Each structure stands twice: as C-alpha cells, then as structure tokens.
Amino acid sequence: MISFNVPPFVGNELKYIEEAVRMRKICGDGSFTKKCSRWLEKQTGSAKVLLTTSCTHATEMAAILSDIEPDDEVIMPSYTFVSTANAFTLRGARIVFVDIRPDTMNIDEKLIESAITEKTKAIVVVHYAGVSCEMDTIMDIAKRHNICVIEDAAQGMMSTYKGKPLGTIGDYGCYSFHETKNYSMGEGGALLVKNKKNIQQAEIIREKGTNRSQYFRGEIDKYTWMSTGSSYLPSELNAAYLWAQLEAAQKIYDDRMNSWNKYHDLLSELEKSGNIELPGVPEECKHNAHMFYIKTNNLEERTRLIKYLKKENIYAVFHYIPLHSSPAGKELGQFHGEDKYTTKESERLLRLPLYYGLGEDDIEHIVSKIKDFWK
Fold first, then answer.
1. Model confidence over 129-177: pLDDT tens digits?
2. What are the pLDDT digits (tens) for 238-290?
C-alpha cells in the first residue's frame, strides 16, 4: 500500500522530546520553542515569529490583531480550508468569496478590487500548494484601500515570491506544522509578524490576554490581564519534535522537490496527450513541493481514477469542497461575481502521494498505474 501521507520523521525527534522532559519545562516557550522561533525569524526575516498550537490559531490571532469586528467584510478565495474563514467569522465578520485562477488555484488578483466595499477590513490570500498568489498586485490594492493583508501560508513554508518568503509580504503570515505539512509538530503553527509595533500585542493575545511574556523576560515585576486573548502556546514537546525537522529543513525540501520533479517529468506525456493537466508555477514563484496534483477532464473521470488507484493500493485524494457551496458558507458568506473556475477546477483536482521519504520506485509505480488507467 502507498499511503497518501506519512508524517515526516528525520531521526532526532524522540531524542529532543526526551531532552524537553528532562528539562522539566514542557508547557511551552521553553528552549525548543525559542530555538524554533529564532530559526524561523532568521529564515523568513520576520520581525517576530510566534509558535502557536495550530495554523488555525495563528489565523485567529491575525484576525484579532487586524481588529476584525462584527459586520466587517473579509475577502478570500472559496477554495480553501474552513479555518481560513472560521478565524474571521468567529469575530463576527462576513466572508466575501472571490473566484480563483485555474493555473495556480489561488485567488484571482484581478477580481479582488471589485469586491471591496466600505465594510472591507482585510484580504486573506491562500498560497495553494506552496505556490504564491500574485502578491505585488494584491499589496498595491490593499495599500490604496488601506486594507490589511493576511497570508494563509499554511502550505507555504520555504516557498518564495520574487525572493520573498511567503508569510512575510502581508501584515501577518500563518504557517502550519500539521502532520500533513512539509515540516510537522503533529498539531501546530506559527504567526509571522511583519511590523515590530505589533509584536507586544501579539504576545499578549497568545498568552491568554496577559503580559506574561514581558514578565518572563524581566521587563515587568508582575503580569496581569491586558486584553482579549487565548491560550495559543504549543507544548514544548511539540516544539522539540519540530526542532528536529527545522534542523533538517533543506534535506526535507530537497527530498520532496526530487519527488515533485519526478512526478512532473513522468506525467508530462499524459499532459501532452490531453489526458491530464499538471500544476502551474509562475516564473516569479519558487514553490516547496508541498503537493503534487493532477487535473482530470471532469469529476466523473476523477472519481473513477481514485477508485482505480485505491484498488491498486494507492491512496490519492481530492481536496477542498468550495466553502461558498457549504451550509456555513451560504450562511456566513457570499460569492462575489461569477464562480467560473472555483467549483469546476476543484472537481477536477486529484492529489497524489507525496511525503518525505517517498521512494522513486513508488513514484514510478504510481505513474505507471495512472497511465494504465488511460490505456
């Protein structure tokens, strides 16, 4: 059987978890959390990186920091995970969904400005499969309308746009370290803060609304409740697991990229014959091999291919059901303009197995079975 995903494991995870236990500091913000945060700050150039319990929680923090309030409108793609929207509906905002580009599955930057109203408070971009949205255009729109930009870069760590790490271009960036991501701590994430003036408030929100972080640094003699917040600190055990993978970040990146390139090379023949479409990566984007997907001609064909591969013990899966077609999406949001691509493209997309340590023989086997399907 070839699984769709196998959580990354590089070798030092258990050693570091044991070290954390022996340090008698496992509740969060210990030495491993600090190591991870410093590494991420150096890697991305962010003013501050705060580890969180999930990317969902990082996005919730970004919503609070962006002062999202009831009746505000937030623009985002419908083709995304529910957390992208939940972070803002929890604050009382209404979601305005915009259609995607078929080449990248990212929000169509040309459609954003027409969706802006006097109630628009933020634009949330989702870098699908670790391929960046067209950020120059989006940042220009946001600047002209004085709107906050939040990057859902859950899939985008180690990816760049014109040399800039994803998550660092907008006001806030959100990473995921879920077990399905390139780098994992089981459940976890990170908030990237661009502007230094927002760091203190971000720390307060993350520490249950208290200035506890300042207290631990010796900047104040006691800590107290300062504002709205929640418990967004991950366990030190999770951070220890993540640190082992950040140490091997380039090794993991190279391994996944080799797999992605092999898929692309071996499947190019099927694309040329018109059976499938392969992922699009704009020239200004450097992706991280988070995902390899193909697009079939229609939903019926995709369904048959999934069943065929499953019979061959290969687990390939589809992805998001567009949020605007869901019960909650209909109640809490609205689709602006025409759904020209969101639904149609989502019904064609099929994700193939891709994870650290996936063997070349496995990829060749998967591709051979895909080719057999069309024979």
1. 999 999 999 999 999 999 999 999 999 999 999 999 999 999 999 999 9
2. 999 999 999 999 999 999 999 999 999 999 999 999 999 999 999 999 999 99
Q: What is the pLDDT of residue 345?
A: 98
Pairing of strands 285-286, 160-161: antiparallel
What pLDDT score was predicted for residue 157?
98
Domain 13-247 grouped into CATH 3.40.50.720: no
Residues 6+ apart with CB under 8 A from 92: 68, 69, 70, 71, 72
**Helices 199-206 and 55-65, axial angle in degrees (round to 10):** 130
249-374 CATH pick, 3.90.950.10, 3.30.300.30, 3.90.1150.10, 3.30.420.40: 3.90.1150.10
337: its two tokens: 């303009």
**pTM above threshold 0.85:** yes
3-class secondary structure for 209-222?
A: CECHHHHHCCCCCC
pLDDT in tens, 69-97: 999 999 999 999 999 999 999 999 999 99
The residues near 327 (Cβ < 8 Å, ≥ 6 apart) are: none
